[in-house]
């Protein structure tokens, strides 16, 4: 074979191995379908209970538009706009602002959201039975909660810092109510404000109504941080789309109307704050003007009084043309200086002295002051009375201009403030739709069922991984080096009968003689007969067959009893010995008692054992000795030695001379002697009994016995110099879910009962 052919063959083999492994994995899941279905149903039940346990969740939505800036001030003219400046805002920043305590705290205080009421009488079963429970309702008037025994209404509950987030119990009494926290107990009147002083501070409470006497209600006052965190956990504030300036607010809760009310108050609180923020600059400017106007008015009045007094004293002075021009220019300069000083005062409210606008105004002021100084120097040359007249006249004119300008701007700003709006407006207020968004019962149940099925699948695979059970005969032969000489299928009829506790163990020949199981036992008989012959002729002395197993419950007694029955069909004299003197139950297969058996025989003194070699097989005598422990069964050619009375030293009895003498004597009386021994891993009896056996058979149960235990049992037998001659795979189940069903023996003959 060339290299390419070898590679092709190797790839094909690997592919086949992969397919076999995948098929084996699928078959493992199919065999464990009951576990998968159980956990799927369990998940479905848990999903149904959870969907009823959780209160329905409702959702409310609102929309707010954020404009880039406010146009209110600019609409009145450039002069006012210069005083107020512009405001810009982005939706992302406003979204974070809405979640702040500045916006949420007024809502918390208005609706008393820090007060929490609870009904401790509602348990897990009540939530499932009622599908939903009532939740507290917060309004500006107080907090209310409906219970089975009546309604709770609290209009006020204030506590000191130490009592925050601490649970209290509120109970109606004959005279009013009792408020306690486990340490303090306060009594008050319903419908009246009450104030108590406890160990950790004061408590103010007004109880308007309570349920019937003795019905407890839990009440607590949360801290502001806890309450706002709770609101934010249920509140979603996001910009709808990209750069749209539209903010969508969503809030979830267990009560539709309550959720809509809280969200509405949050929207209104934000709009109020937004409007206040939009008019904040205008308010500051008006406040500044209100402090300056009285002083300017007083200054104007003082200058007019001095000027009038001067005119009364000296009369009217005719000012020359030059003086008039200088006076006019000087007055204009003073007006400009005062306007610039006013603008500078307003700008320094918002900007520092290093701002370009402030520096520009300072430069203009310097130029005007220089020119004013020149005019003053020129006027100084005029006569003293004329100069004083000009000075008083100029002061009066300047003060009048400043006062009138300030008063005009003040009135304009008052108009602006009255019509000023914020840069946010409400598009949609929340409405109650009464549509639940959670729990989505169908999805929860489907998901829970799938998770349950996944858990069941994992458990089946994990069990198969951890518990490597006996399944593949080829694998057993490869690992142990011992041939699997028989696979015994399960008898469905016998399995149904064995489920009844009142039903005794039965032989296949009696209840299911046409089954595959019975045919497999016959095949085992044939295999043993051929293997027990020498040179083509059967040896005259009886052949001893030891049937054992690695652990209890593998079906060795079943194999021993039925194997003896099929040997007896050939008119062979068969003796069945129950070698398990501890827990043997082979007597039940023959509907006999366990007493007067092997343990009793081996417990006798050596001189009590009487040779029975001279007794013919058909002799009916009742001589003492070994024969008294051999009991005939209801089936022809089959005798039975039960296990006898439970001894305290079974292994010691088997190692004594009595057992060897017994085996030597009975071999001449029977064609086949079948010994049912204890499990190898449970006791050492099987290793002792095997020393007297011609064939040692190891019984193991399909998909029940642990492969590692079987290997260890074989290893233990080998250590005792006992060669296991064959493995019997018992209780093999046939079907499409069994990968190894081809190991079945098929019956050939009449199937009619």
Spell out the key features of this protein.
single chain; 8-stranded mixed β-sheet; 24 helices; 25 strands; alpha+beta; 18% strand; 753 residues; 5-stranded antiparallel β-sheet; 4 domains
Can you walk through the features of this model?
- With 753 residues, this protein is α+β, with helices and mostly antiparallel strands.
- The protein has 24 helices and 25 strands.
- The strands form 5 sheets. It has an 8-stranded mixed β-sheet, sandwiched between helices. Strands 1, 12, 13, 14 and 15 form a 5-stranded antiparallel β-sheet that branches.
- Strand 17 (533-534) and strand 18 (537-538) form a beta hairpin.
- Helix 2 (33-53) packs antiparallel against helix 13, helix 5 (101-111) crosses helix 8 (256-278) and helix 10 runs parallel beside helix 12 (384-419).
- The model is unreliable at 1-20, 70-77, 84-89, 534-539, 610-624 and 739-753 (pLDDT under 50).
Strand content: 15-25%
Q: What is the total number of structural domains? A: 4
Morphology call: rod-shaped
Total helix count?
Answer: 24
Largest sheet: 8 strands, mixed
Strand order of the largest sheet: 16-25-24-19-23-20-22-21
List how many beta strands DSSP finds: 25
Classify the secondary structure makeup into a structural class.
alpha+beta
What is the helix content?
Answer: 40-55%
Question: How would the blueprint of this fold be written?
Answer:
Elements: H1 3-31, H2 33-53, E1 57-66, H3 78-84, H4 91-98, H5 101-111, E2 115-118, H6 124-130, E3 137-139, E4 142-147, E5 150-159, E6 168-172, E7 177-180, E8 185-188, E9 193-198, E10 201-209, E11 217-221, H7 224-234, E12 235-239, E13 246-253, H8 256-278, H9 280-314, H10 321-347, H11 356-379, H12 384-419, E14 424-428, E15 436-438, H13 441-466, H14 473-480, E16 484-489, H15 492-498, H16 508-511, H17 516-531, E17 533-534, E18 537-538, E19 543-549, H18 556-568, E20 574-578, H19 586-589, H20 598-602, E21 631-632, E22 638-641, H21 650-655, H22 657-666, E23 672-676, H23 685-690, E24 695-701, H24 707-719, E25 726-732
Parallel strand pairs: 16-25, 19-23, 19-24, 20-22, 20-23, 24-25
Antiparallel strand pairs: 1-13, 1-14, 1-15, 2-11, 3-4, 4-5, 5-10, 6-7, 6-11, 7-8, 9-10, 12-13, 17-18, 21-22
């Amino acid at each position: 074979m060339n290299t390419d052919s070898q590679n092709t063959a190797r790839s094909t083999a690997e592919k086949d191995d992969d397919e076999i492994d995948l098929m084996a994995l699928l078959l493992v899941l199919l065999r464990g379908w009951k576990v998968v279905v159980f956990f799927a149903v369990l998940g479905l039940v848990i999903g149904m209970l959870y969907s009823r346990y959780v209160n329905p969740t409702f959702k409310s939505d609102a929309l707010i538009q954020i404009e880039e800036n406010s146009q209110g001030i600019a609409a009145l003219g450039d002069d006012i706009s210069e005083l107020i400046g512009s405001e810009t805002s982005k939706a992302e920043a406003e979204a974070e602002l809405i979640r702040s305590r500045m916006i949420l705290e007024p809502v918390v205080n208005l609706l008393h959201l820090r007060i929490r009421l609870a009904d401790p009488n509602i348990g897990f079963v009540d939530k499932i039975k009622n599908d939903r429970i009532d939740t507290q309702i917060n309004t500006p008037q107080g907090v209310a909660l409906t219970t089975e025994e009546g309604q709770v209404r609290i209009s006020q509950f204030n506590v000191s810092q130490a009592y925050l987030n601490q649970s209290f119990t509120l109970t109606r009494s004959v005279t009013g109510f009792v408020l306690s926290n486990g340490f303090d107990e306060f009594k008050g009147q319903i419908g009246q404000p009450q104030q108590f002083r406890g160990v950790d501070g004061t408590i103010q409470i007004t109880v308007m109504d309570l349920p019937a006497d003795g019905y407890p209600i839990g009440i607590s006052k949360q801290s502001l941080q806890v309450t706002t965190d709770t609101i934010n956990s249920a509140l979603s504030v996001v910009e709808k789309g990209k750069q749209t300036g539209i903010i969508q607010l969503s809030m979830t809760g267990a009560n539709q109307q309550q959720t809509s009310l809280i969200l509405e108050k949050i929207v209104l609180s934000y709009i109020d704050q937004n409007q206040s923020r939009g008019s904040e600059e205008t308010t500051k400017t008006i406040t500044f003007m209100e402090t300056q106007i009285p002083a300017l008015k007083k200054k104007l009045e003082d200058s007019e009084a001095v000027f009038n007094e001067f005119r009364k004293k000296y009369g009217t002075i005719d000012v020359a043309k030059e003086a008039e021009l200088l006076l006019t220019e000087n007055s204009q300069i003073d007006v400009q200086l005062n306007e610039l000083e006013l603008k500078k005062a307003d700008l320094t409210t918002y900007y520092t002295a290093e701002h370009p606008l402030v520096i520009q105004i300072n430069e203009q002021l310097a130029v005007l002051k220089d020119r004013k100084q020149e005019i003053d120097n020129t006027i100084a040359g005029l006569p003293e009375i004329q100069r004083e007249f000009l000075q008083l006249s100029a002061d009066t004119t300047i003060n009048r201009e400043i006062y009138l300008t300030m008063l005009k701007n003040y009135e304009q700003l008052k108009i602006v403030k009255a019509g000023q709006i914020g840069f946010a407006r409400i598009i949609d207020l929340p409405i109650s739709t009464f549509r639940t968004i959670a729990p989505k019962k169908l999805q929860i149940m489907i998901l829970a069922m799938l998770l349950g099925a996944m858990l069941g699948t994992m458990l089946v695979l994990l069990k198969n991984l951890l518990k490597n059970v006996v399944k593949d005969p080829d694998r057993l032969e490869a690992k142990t080096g011992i041939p699997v000489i028989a696979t015994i299928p399960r008898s469905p009829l016998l399995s149904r009968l064995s489920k009844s506790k009142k039903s005794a163990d039965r032989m296949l020949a009696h209840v299911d003689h046409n089954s595959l199981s019975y045919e497999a036992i016959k095949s085992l008989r044939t295999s043993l007969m051929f293997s027990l012959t020498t040179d083509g002729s059967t040896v005259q002395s009886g052949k001893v067959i030891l049937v054992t197993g690695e652990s209890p419950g593998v079906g060795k007694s079943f194999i021993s009893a039925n194997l003896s029955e099929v040997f007896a069909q050939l008119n062979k004299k068969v003796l069945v010995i129950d070698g398990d003197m501890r827990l043997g139950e082979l007597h039940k297969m023959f509907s006999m008692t366990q007493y007067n058996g092997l343990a009793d025989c081996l417990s006798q003194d050596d001189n009590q054992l009487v040779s029975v070699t001279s007794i013919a097989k058909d002799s009916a005598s009742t001589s003492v000795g070994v024969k008294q422990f051999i009991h005939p069964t209801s089936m022809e050619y089959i005798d039975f030695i039960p296990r006898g009375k439970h001894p305290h030293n079974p292994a010691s009895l088997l190692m004594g001379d009595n057992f060897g003498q017994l085996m030597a004597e009975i071999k001449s009386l029977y064609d086949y002697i079948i010994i049912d021994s204890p499990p190898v891993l449970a006791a050492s009896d099987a290793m002792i009994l095997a020393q007297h056996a011609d064939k040692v058979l190891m019984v193991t149960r399909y998909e029940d016995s642990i492969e590692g235990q079987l290997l260890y049992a074989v290893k233990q037998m080998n250590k005792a110099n006992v060669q296991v001659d064959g493995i019997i795979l018992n209780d093999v189940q046939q079907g499409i879910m069994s990968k190894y069903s081809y190991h079945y023996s098929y019956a050939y003959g009449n199937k009619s009962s």
